[in-house]
Amino acid sequence: MIATSCISLVCPVGYTPASAAAAMRAGIAVFEELPYRDNSGQPLRGARVEAVPPETRGRSRIAALARLAVDHIDEKAAALLPWGEMPFLLCTRDADMPGARINGILAGLTAPNGAPLAGKRSVHITNGQISAFVAVEQARKLLNERNVEACLVMAIDSLIDARSLCWLDNRMRLKTSEVTDGLIPGEAACILVVSKRPIVDGSLWLRGLGLAIETATAGNEDPFRADGLSAALKAALAEAGAQMHEVAFRLSDVAGESYAFEELVLAQVRNMRQPRLEEQPVWHPASCIGDCGAAAGLIQFAWAEQAFKRGYAPGQLAALHGSSMAFGGRATAVVTGGRS
């Protein structure tokens, strides 16, 4: 197994993993009117990071989120990391998703010790909602194949962008005055350390990881059976040596679309081999901070870590889910807290 630890999380309800997780646990939502309108001319609602001014848009907004995430890196964890030596994996939106340009967003950013944030070994992952899971899988391979002790994973995204909002609205996937079955845009930046051994007390342990492709997307008419997410969950459980009924709670990037809720239920049912007597709750960060795109996966890792660390996780095993509704990517991770 490998360990993961969130060392920075900047989102609409908090600027540290602890504060953000506490707010989401309490169900604090911060949706407000955005300086954008839907195709009917009505104001859109979303969740934005207060520290980034509304007039900061496009690439400048993404860069500002990245800068905030670096500025809020936990000092104790930072002192223990080999800055400048860790492979760096950057997670952003799907390659085919319209939005702000990504090039140059890390320019001038340095690690707490002054070393470049992105070292010589850098990877750019453009898989949207499942980018975090793809990055953790790649980091795991790097830890096994190369002489490195840790990898740095950074996820940044903002759906509060005219191009992204227009693209979603035209496909009736955005919650508007006329579409109630849609997502609410959000934004966030998160930094995760993936290592062979825990960097700090309370790190998560990755027990299993599964990646798959769903052919029935939100943009076609293929029969919907949740094949992709079911396969990803099955693979993660198999690697973890666990059964679905043993999972105590789940986290998901579902952001309001009924299609996504149905998929989550179908994946659970298709993998449940025996009844579970206790409740198996599902936590949805998007109910508080909206759809944060490529950052949604790392937010799940961060919240699960805080739940185990602070003792309110309802059991020993958690399953995290990622779904790129428009492009078909599906992912699941099975994690646990404490010692291996």
Structure report:
The chain is of the alpha/beta class. The protein folds into 2 domains: about 1-195, Peroxisomal Thiolase, Chain A, domain 1 (3-Layer(aba) Sandwich), CATH 3.40.47; about 205-335, Thiolase/Chalcone synthase (Peroxisomal Thiolase, Chain A, domain 1). It is built from 9 helices and 12 strands. It has a 10-stranded mixed β-sheet, with helices on both faces. Strands 2-3 form a two-stranded antiparallel sheet. It is globular. About 50% of the residues are buried.
Number of strands: 12
- At CATH's second level, what is the architecture of the largest domain? 3-Layer(aba) Sandwich
Quick one: overall form? globular
- In CATH, what is the homologous superfamily of the largest domain? Thiolase/Chalcone synthase
Largest sheet: 10 strands, mixed
The total of helices stands at 9
The SSE string, one letter per element, is EHEEHHEEHEHEEHEHEHHEE
Side by side, the strands of the main sheet go 5-4-6-7-1-8-12-11-9-10
- Tally of structural domains: 2
| CATH fold-level assignment of the largest domain | Peroxisomal Thiolase, Chain A, domain 1
Computed Rg = 19 Å
